[in-house]
Design a protein that fits this description.
alpha+beta; about 40% strand; elongated
Length: about 150
Amino acid sequence: MNRIARTAHLRRTRIARAVVCAAVAGGLALGLGACSESVDRSVGEAVDEAVDETYEVTYEVTGTTVDEIQFHGGGGKAMEPKIETVKSPTLPWRKTVTLRGIMPSAVMPIALDGGAADVACTITYKGKVVEEAKGEALLTGGGCIAVSPVTG
């Protein structure tokens, strides 16, 4: 009987510890989440101030038809790039942009009629294709997105 009581006590102690650990972890997550926006904003501003190096990429979209093309054109902040849009573009479409710092290069062709099977996008940096996608991979992957070559 003494052994059974001791085993039950150990189980209750382990369960109590697990509950307390979960509560502490949840509290930390909520607490850190509450200030993450201001941390992200200050980190983004610090990155923008510290990394002034620029780089140039060329976006290209090919295929038969897309309704619009969205891309990072260099405006905005490193961690919140401004998205530019071209409506009813003529394909093939090509645009060279200058980006700054750690801002990623990104281009997303949008075909509303589901005809993206023959659409492709590429991102070229210094004459080398750094990202490409076509057809279903383009849709599921969110277009072509490449990390910045600037290491800071």
